[in-house]
Amino acid sequence: MAKILLAEDDSNLGTLLTDYLEAKNYRVVHLTGGQKALDTFRTETFDLCLLDIMLPELDGISLAKKIRKIEKDVPFIFLTAKSLEKDKIEGFSAGADDYITKPFSMEELLYRIEAILRRTKSFTDEEPDEFKLGKFTFYPRTQILDSDEGSQKLTTKESELLKLLCHNKNEVLERNYALRTIWVDDNYFNARSMDVYITKLRKYLKTDPSITILNVHGKGYRLLCE
Q1: How far apart are CA 186 and CA 77, in angstroms?
Q2: How many structural domains does the chain have?
Q3: Which residue from 17, 207, 62, 202 is spatially nearest to 194, judged by alpha carbons?
Q4: CA 215, 216, 221: angle at the middle one, nearest 5?
């Protein structure tokens, strides 16, 4: 059961979010002030933080930066009424994993939380140090694809996509699942972006004919490898 720190000064929204997420089997600690949220984070362990930007005592951006100094890997999502591009840039510059503008649907927020936790937690608890793919060795933590012919440093998206393929080796990796896990949103533009990354991975692996990434029509991709 993942534990979430919710910093939201609107008590009504905070209560609604708490009740909804607890009904979805999350543990939620709701604080209405930024400083109190920071003090609580220092004494408890959380899997994810939901931070309103407009908090009393300590605003959400400042809170996020202080949280990052305590625990650099904890993911967080900003909840805010601000929708200006500069505000989003400031949020992501503070290390946000996602950003959702009020008003939003509970279902959309849940969707984003699940995607981030799948990406940051489920594959880190029991993450193999390496994957063997024919003549290649893939090191997900360092994002290195290694062989006797040399090493290829992968981008974050390339590494995340190859990691999903490895976890589903010789089975179908569903297209929408991959999009939601890595890109959060399975819209057309993200789908096209994923196609580009699949092409790049095929290029990196093409020197070993025993490895193939197949398109499975209407479903997704299959990494075939002995």
Answers
A1: 18
A2: 2
A3: 202
A4: 60
**Tokens matching residue 34:** 């930024």
| Same domain assignment for residues 65 and 118 | yes
Rounded CA separation 82/120 (Å): 26
Determine if the pTM surpasses 0.90: no
**Are 105 and 163 part of one and the same domain?**
no
Phi, psi of 34 (to 5 degrees): -65, -40
Q: What is the domain range of residue 166? A: 131-224
pLDDT one-digit tens code per residue, 166-219? 988 999 888 888 887 787 666 788 888 899 999 999 999 999 999 999 999 988
CATH number at 68 reads 3.40.50.2300
β-bridge mates for residue 31, sequence order: 7
Please enumerate in sequence order all residues whose Cβ is within 8 A of that of 199, keeping only pairs 6 or more positions apart, or say none.
Answer: none
- Rounded Cα–Cα distance for residues 31 and 51 (Å): 10
Cα–Cα distance between 190 and 55 in angstroms, integer?
32
